Amino acid sequence: MTRKLNRRDLLRGSLNGSIVAVALPFLDIFLNDNGTALADTGRALPPCFGTWFQHLGFNPGRWIPDQVGSGYENNVELKVFDPFRNRINIISGTKYFMDGRPLETHKTGVQIATTGAIFEGADVPPSLDSTIADTIGARTRFRSLEVALNGRTQSASQRSSSAVNPSETSPAALYQRIFGPGFVDPNAAEFTPDPTVMARRSVLSLVADDRIKLMRDVGAADRARLDEYFTSIRQIEQQLEIELHRPAPLETCVIAPEPAEELPELPGLTAEAAENNCSLFASLLGHALACDQTRVFNVFAGTLMMRLPGGVRDWHSLTHEEPIDDMLGVQKDVTWFIDWANRIFVEFLSILEGISEGEGSVLDRLVILWQTDHGYARTHTMENLPIMTVGNAGGRLRTGIHIAAPGDPTTRVGLTIQQAFGVPVSKWGTLSNETDRTINEIII
Amino acid sequence: MSMGGMAKIKARTKGRVALVPGLVLAVVTTSLWLGTGNAGETHKGDYIPREPVMRRLTAGQYRNVISDIFGPDIQIGGRLEPDLREGGLYAVGAGHVSITAAGMEQYDQMARAIAAQVLDEQHRRMTMPCEPADIGAPDDACARQFLTTTGLYLFRRPLTATQADVYVAAANEATKIVDDFYHGLSLSLAAMLSSPQFLFRQQITEPEPDRHGQFRLDAWSKATQLSFFLWNSTPDTLLLEAARGGELNDLHGLDQQVRRMMASPRLETGVRAFFIDNFRFSEFETLTKDARLFPKFGASVAADAREQTLRTIIDLLLHRQEDYRKLFTTRKTFLTPRLGAIYRVPVSHSGPNGAPERWRPHEFSPSEPNIGILTHISFTGLHSPPGRGSPTIRGKAMREVMLCQLVPAPPAEVPFDIVQDITNPLYKTARERLTAHRREPVCAGCHNLMDPIGLALENFDGAGEYRQFENGVPIDPSGEFDTLPFRDFAELSELIAGSRALSSCLVNRLLSYARGRGIDHDERAWVEKTESLFIDGGYRLPDLMRRIATSDDFYRVAAPGTSKIAQEADPQDEAIKSSSGSGQ
Questions:
Q1: What is the pLDDT of residue B435?
Q2: SS3 letters for chain A?
Q3: B412 contacts A166? CB cut-off 8 A
Q4: Residue in chain A nearest B559 by alpha carbon
Q5: B105 vs A379: CB contact, 8 Å cut-off?
């Protein structure tokens, strides 16, 4: 009668042993009293990972701290990050290696940053958030969640050439995905499995064999694409399973406030709308993490076409068109955009920090990797790239350190982060971007 | 079934009147459009069969298919998985994409919403061939009738006996759980709508009876290939019946079907779909202009601009069956009052008899600058940044979209402020700024490809409105196109229309679109042969489409895993060829 519930038992019981390979939700009945660790094992709450991709870099000479190592002082362009300085690592001096390949501006950098490789055609490696999601996010309702601030579905996250994860553009739509009809509130007094969900699960299991037969008649490339399809179907099955079981009460799980409908017509193309999206997405993603609906998210800031309301030129055009201001020594409007983007990223972090879990916040369980496409957008440089990591994922990284790695491949950072999350990878990247050297200063 | 899906499609098909008056289809007298020759013999230009391609339905196709099968009033909410453009076409990218987890959620949700509508009280009288004995309990016979009929259209081939059993069993189980026949049936239908058999167009092969060791699409896959090529939608009842009866494996039967399909108003849907894809009109979805600079330009103008060019294309290529190249020199088009404001043409709100009419045919006079579709807003406005025009972007689009010549990306470490600072008093016009920029040797190669032809459109601002001056300086639209001089855009448009690259590009894209795969290096002779036929036939698009649709090459495939891997034509080659051709 008092036998402790085991998650595997729950699974077996719930499925009558009829379905195998169903991933498990994170059941917080196993949390300790203060909500920071698993009660029966003492293991910390699961780590989470996020990416923030922001095109167009920073101004050279205005972001690298003078001091290397811990206790650095933020340079003028990053002053806004002071409240989070002890949680942030700044990596300066790294570069994207082209290996004689043509540069596709604003694209090649994204490829190397996210996959460690320059690719074209069908031979596309997975982005590092996908490999991390496979390691830490396979059991949640959403393997990962992607959002873009600029109203377009682009993202820098992909599992392969055939599966580029589209970004959610509407906070209202993301709310429906996370907290809409498929969400089972762990703190609700009553739980009644939805018969429609039961029926859907039944239908899916009955047609599964017929769908898989398709694999027999296709070539290798199409088989890989069907594999992606079946991976996606498994997430649907997993979601149905989660919906059919009463989750353990989860004190820290609070349903995010429902966002209002988005602004009409390309909401994210102005800085004002993107800023609004940023705050709403931060709240939704933070609550999704707190309710363990996902453990991985990707934010595509989509800065290329960003304009001020009524503004003639967008940020990207300005990087190429705007003369350098004699007094300031930089492009004035471009610098306004850089400051603005840093400010909304800080706002994003602040909202995550505001979502408390026990004595800390959801930010404590995160590492967020901030990357960009060019060191200096005005001339499309591929050197001296700013990279930041925020958070230590529950003590998996040292933070508050400035690491100078002049001439090193940026992939050192990606390799380090993947290893921190337990991805079994000893080297990462291709050709000159390949590395087996982690950033040892931040490894614990 | 009285008013079920099949009957409905039949009724719709029969009820349609050919939209294309005077469309005369030449009778196909030979099966071997490209001279494939006897089995075993190969000649230069012969088609080399490729592996089958499994294509995901594009967003447009998904909508067309649902509307054609279940009726246009079925609402399709939600966001479909973004399409991927490859080789200039979504149709080619469709052969490489899969479905992500986020995308699957959307498809799943949409499938349930569509299935619920199809079987709701309002629609079931039209869509159900039978009534269940008890609305609260399973009725396998009735479910089977519905699912096998609908499954034929959704899977584009009959369900196998096992498939029928599985979906009937699924409906049965679901009905028992929810105690509602239609709800249970709708969940089984939703499973069909989210199945790979529906979401992907799979090509099933069979041995060619007359060519030992070679393969072709089976009749059902043929029907699908044909239908999506000509109509951008699923096969209708008559085409499926032709597939079932083996007619599509017979030259005469295939020709009959192609004739019928090309006489259908759906051909316009198909041709529109090709040009929407080929001319990248999906970019209209995110097109914005700065309202302070271009107050006449709004979302509705953008929609009209897209439609203006599509109407011009359909009128010239389908209705009048004229030479494709005339698209680039025609002064005939269609306008709305909103477009008239930008083109500075008074467009009446009412038709000849006072009836409301939004679209009016219009012909620009020879003294006006508007000649050909490249002077349409769908080109000048679409290929411009929000706040200005851009000769470089327009020149790049002419090369890449219209002529299939890829321009390499700019190198790193190059400042652009001279070229793009429109407030610099030293360089008042785009021509002056670009000339200064081209002094950088590293920039000159590519800009020589783009700028001279892009500058010819400088008389059209970022929203497509005519202007004579930039910063008070008269605009000079003269230049050179592949070593040939021109004085203004009217002359350039004649040069473009006369360029072999223009027709070659259309043939290349149409073949890629039809097959769902780009052109490989070793297919160039085959493409050139096709192009010769297109030229000899007077550059007529319907004729080219008919040739493709009735050729057996279009349906020949290699067995999966057997075709040799050929390299895609290297875009750099095209750029280099083009560069040397321009003599820069």
A1: 74
A2: CCCCCCHHHHHHHHHCCCCCCCCCCCCHHHECCCCCEECCCCCECCCEEEEEECCCECCCCCCCCCCCEECCCCCHHHHHHHHHHHHEEEEEEEECCCCCCCCCCCCHHHHHHHHCCCCCCCCCCCCHHHHHHHHHCCCCCCCCEEEECCCCCCCCCEEECCEECCCECCHHHHHHHHHCCCCCCCCCCCCCCCHHHHHHHHHHHHHHHHHHHHHHHCCHHHHHHHHHHHHHHHHHHHHHHHHCCCCCCCCCCCCCCCCCCCCCCCHHHEHHHHHHHHHHHHHHHHHHHHCCCCCEEEEECCCCCCECCCCCCCHHHHHHHCCCCCCCCCCHHHHHHHHHHHHHHHHHHHHHHCCEECCEEHHHHEEEEEECCCCEHHHCCCCCEEEEEECCCCCCECCCEEEECCCCECHHHHHHHHHHCCCCCCCECCHHHCECCCCHHHEC
A3: no
A4: A219
A5: no
Two tokens at B270? 């198909």
Q: How far apart are CA A434 and CA B4, in angstroms?
A: 60
Percent of chain A with pLDDT over 90: 58
The complex scores an ipTM of: 0.83
Size of interface A-B (CB pairs under 8 A): 213
Of A166, A228, A382, the CB nearest to B412: A382
Q: Mean pLDDT throughout B178-197?
A: 97
- Of A290 and B562, which is predicted with more confidence? A290
Q: Which residues of A touch B409 (CB under 8 A)?
A: 102-105, 107
What is the reported pTM?
0.82
* B386 has a chain A CB within 8 A of its CB: yes
- The one-character DSSP state at B285 is G
Of the partner residues A105, A226, A265, the one whose CB lies closest to the CB of residue B299: A265
Closest CB from B54, B171, B184 relative to A225: B54
* pLDDT, tens digit (0-9, with 9 covering 90-100), for B39-90: 455 677 788 898 899 999 999 999 999 999 999 999 987 778 888 888 899 9
Q: Judge: A381–B178 Cβ closer than 8 Å, yes or no.
A: no
The β-bridge partners of B332 are B363
